[in-house]
Amino acid sequence: MPPGDLTNEELRRYDGSNPALPILLAAKGRIFDMTRGRDFYGKGGPYNCFAGIDCSRALAKVSLEKKDLNANCADLFASERDVLNDWVAKFEAKYPVVGNVLDSTYDGAP
């Protein structure tokens, strides 16, 4: 099990590029262990761009674009916040929460 709370810099280590480490991603400042979804979130997987970061904005916008791969949710529409909340609920049901991002830039939008 990886350490609990991590900084953004520490989280980057868990991007799926090292098969000896778990694959982590954060959403709304919460860190999820996505290792059991290695085919999707690991190196070469379709959602690997989410690994090792807080990808809240990209989840909310259902985007794989580099400009959206961050935690900035300040300007989201209510419908996008709902999408983000749905993703977080799905992650909570399927993947363990292992910590929080200590220096999260997630703005706390509901």
TrEMBL record:
Highest rank taxon of the organism: Eukaryota
**Gene3D superfamilies, from UniProt?**
Cytochrome b5-like heme/steroid binding domain
Q: Which InterPro entries does the record match to this protein?
A: Cyt_B5-like_heme/steroid-bd, Cyt_B5-like_heme/steroid_sf, MAPR/NEUFC/NENF-like
Q: Where in the cell is it found?
A: Endoplasmic reticulum
Q: Please report the organism this UniProt entry assigns to the protein.
A: Micromonas pusilla (strain CCMP1545) (Picoplanktonic green alga)
Sorted keywords for this record are: Endoplasmic reticulum, Heme, Iron, Lipid-binding, Metal-binding, Steroid-binding
Q: What is its main location?
A: endoplasmic reticulum
Q: What is this protein called?
A: Predicted protein
GO cellular component terms, alphabetically, are: endoplasmic reticulum; membrane
